[in-house]
Amino acid sequence: MTPQRRKPVPEPDSRLFPQCRHCVSTLGLIKMRKVVLVTGANSGIGLALCQRLLSLHAESLHLCLACRNMQRAQAARSDLLASHPAANVDLLQMDTSSISSVLIAAKEVKARYDHLDYLYLNAGFMPNPTFDVKAFFKGLFSSNVVTMFATGEGILTQTDGVTPDGLQQVFVTNLFGHFLLVRELEPVLYHPNRTSRLVWTSSSNAHRSAFNLEDIQHQKGTQPYSSSKYATDLLSLALNQHYNKQGLYSSVICPGFVMTNLTYGILPSFPAFLWTLLMPVFWLIRAFTNTFTLTPYNGSEALFWLFRQKPESLDPFAKYHSLTSVLGNNYTQPQKMDITLETSESLYMKLLQLERKMRDKLSENENSTC
Questions:
Q1: 332 near 300, Cβ under 8 Å?
Q2: Which among 113, 225, 230, 348 is annotated as catalytic?
Q3: Per-residue pLDDT tens digits for 206-247
């Protein structure tokens, strides 16, 4: 009997991993390093987290930036390497609003890494909202001013879109695309005698009132962002119930009120000088609340703090908040989430059903084009 020849192992796609030729020759080092993948890492809180991780752990980490826009991702990588020339930073093209993009990206990750220690599920999308100017100025002089700024409550409504896959855009970008990514990456997230972590960027805008278990995509509502973030809180709890025995732990954080592109998108018609005029108001509000973190660096505090914690010691019912004192000191504080185990399990089962539906749909489309 003639022995079968083994097929050569394909090299990773250099478009997705610019350093792959160098890294392929150092696979042993990759196995020793902690591998960290961050979605939405090209700007804002995601990029700030990457800077902070490399500032303390550049030699012991292998960092992967998963981004939709590769031009911006390249710029972010260059920025990181300018500060940390010896760092190991790969790029991965992935759009969490696209099912096929998530599946292709997950396949690349599994081909490139034999393990994944941290998966930061940070990418997010908020559609430009309808802004109630009258309610805004009324809220400035009310006792609800802090909540209004921190969550947009009472002044914002949003119109969601539908992706080519037929899913609500906010739901799939913020939640379902990440859920599918976790499911696909189970082979590299599970490894014996080693824990791995999921860390979700949630929000103080996660309100139970915005979420409907019978409408998980929020097709009928006007608060898709709030709904998706509340669903994130629920899903994290469910993942702990199902994955902790395999050594995989999930946590959620709130970055506080941060000035990022997502924040500026709340008022897209605001000229720059109005944002400048508002900044003293924000600094004044910080004297009365610690949730106004304002900068991406401050907002990434809880993400960075969780990196250093033992996952077994964390509360799955807690959301870890980035906070900044009036003197500018950053710290992390847990707060109990308004969620139940029963609702989280129901959402998890609905997401599994939707996953099967989308996989069947993709399979049918592939068969029809053959």
A1: no
A2: 225
A3: 999 999 999 999 999 889 999 999 999 999 999 999 999 999
